[in-house]
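Ticket #4471: structure output looks truncated?

Reporter: J.K.
Steps to reproduce: submitted the chain below (123 residues) through the standard prediction queue, then opened the result file.
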Amino acid sequence: QVQLVESGGGSVQAGGSLRLSCSTAGVSYSSYCVGWFRQSPGKEREGVATTDSYGSTTYRPAVKGRFTIAKDNAKNTLYLQMNSLKPEDTAMYYCVAKVSPLSCTYTMSPNYWGQGTQVTVNP
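Returned output as attached by the reporter:
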């Protein structure tokens, strides 16, 4: 059974960095699209970044060049390195996965969600 558990959130000053981790138990990277979504107060959940079985990645334009998604197959762990953080990045961040999607992009509708980890960027 797929079980996603995020960690690594916290509070940082604008311009700082955080690295989020997600334990991806039950996820086969050969057939799943995995990634990160986020939800800011008063806003809908939105895709942040994804990576597919081939290692191809997609990023929401607002984070491209600042965030990097990566996975470690041996450790069954997904990461999101976030640099040059801005106050508008403040959100609950969710690890997500989808089985054999038609495409793997940040616009996908995930099948599985983690509990979330809070990221707060202070001005």
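Triage note (M.O.): checked the attachment and the full token line is present. The chain has no helices and eleven strands.
Status: closed, working as intended.
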